[in-house]
TrEMBL record:
The keyword Hydrolase applies. It holds the Pfam family Allantoicase. GO terms for molecular function: allantoicase activity. Residues 20-169, 190-325 form the Allantoicase domain. This is Probable allantoicase. One of its GO terms (biological process) is allantoin catabolic process. Keywords: Hydrolase, Purine metabolism. Belongs to the allantoicase family. Its EC number is 3.5.3.4. The keyword Hydrolase applies. It catalyses: allantoate + H2O = (S)-ureidoglycolate + urea. It comes from Lolliginicoccus lacisalsi. It is an enzyme of class 3 (hydrolase). Pathway: Nitrogen metabolism; (S)-allantoin degradation; (S)-ureidoglycolate from allantoate (aminidohydrolase route): step 1/1.
Amino acid sequence: MVTPPPPFTRFPDLAARLLGGAVVWASDESFAEKENLIRPGAPRHSPATFGHKGQVYDGWETRRRRSPGADHAIVRLGAPGVVHGVIVDTAWFTGNFPPEISVEGAHIDGYPDARDLCAAAEWFPLVPRSAVAGDAINPFDVDDPRTVTHVRLTMHPDGGVARLRVHGIARPDPALRPPGAMDLAAIEHGGHVTDCSNLFYSSPNNLLMPGFAHVMGDGWETARRRFGDDDWEAHNDWVEICLGTGGKLSMLELDTTCFLHNAPGSARVRGRSGDGEWLELLPRTVLRPDTRHRFPVTVDAVVTEVRLDIFPDGGMSRVRAWGTPEVGGVQ
């Protein structure tokens, strides 16, 4: 039986490299580099692959500690936000994983260097000191409403961790909001997926990532729908997105880049107004494969959510909801 992922994984990974996350410091990285902690994709492993430091691991691994203490790594989140859960993945680490870990958070303005982070940061607990299993995905729920800009992973006392994922909702500083129209659905501006019909191949949060997709895996793709000819029109996939801030939309971008033979045949977009009413922003419209589509929005109403329906199934790389934020409308 396949174990379902923890609910918090429906939120984006705020430490993702594509968002601008970075591992800015580690107490030790004798066997494997700290930067591997936030690499995209699942950890890889080839047995008996030895370098001059020993077996090559796709993760962060420290030397064997011969004195009291612990090893630490500090990650700057790509987007500051409220953390809902953390995954400490020890894939392929079997006799060299840490028996226990802890994770702390801090909120730090500006762009401090590693010395300031180590010396002056006021860290608070996100995950208390907890046991972890080797060669396993270790999930931890987090219940703390504070905004986090940096996290510190501690291995007690040493060992190796393959990946660190920090799932949550971005909470950007309103003072740093770009002027004029902006993508209100972007993860870095607080947008996030609240629900979707299917995420068989990849997470719908990929739709809201910055930049352009380079491969299909960078987007959202559903399983193939199977149904009879008589009810073909009655079935479709969909995704609902909470905007980072309510606002009036001026343009929608539906990007099928990299999806050649599995792009949706058509799509429709609706927006939810403050009173809960769903408004049609884009009527059902034919889409082309491997194409960035831009559509003007003429609805003069503040919306807080958008729903994308694709017909009947398929994949998309990005969704953008360009508009002007409502004054004081940060959610």
